[in-house]
Amino acid sequence: MSPRRLFFIAALTAGIAGPALAEVVGKVGVDWVGNDIVVEAVTDPDVKGVTCHVTYFDRSIIDRLSNGNWFEDPSNNSIACRQTGPIEVGQIDLSEEGEEVFREGRSIIWKSLVVNRIYDKKNDTLIYLAHSRQVVEGSAKMSISTVPLFNQNVTWTNGKPQ
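Predicted structure:
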């Protein structure tokens, strides 16, 4: 089991994992030492009918041992979110900062892959931002995806924001 997975399991049992869980749907080997690009499906817990696919680089134990930087993980990630069913928007944060909908440990202690959702009221669009968060400092590497709600049959459980 990878160190990232061990941390995620520990975080989950400690109650510090994010509100959404990811399901690995693909894994592509990129070299002979076992480094992989992992593709996970993440469903938004407060917006039914939207699925995000997040990719990231997963370093192998061989790579970690041979390079001597056991705890480092690259912050490279990508995200694509699409409508995958009827959209039903629950109680979501409408502030400019939005809210965290997914978090997964990317190193044993220091780094997390985070997905935030922001609602762009003017353009009636959900924005999903994937980025890395470190305890010491953040990462400038990020990725963004949008799900337009305009002209869609969307159910707002608490009424559409005006």
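Summary: Residues 3-151 form one domain.
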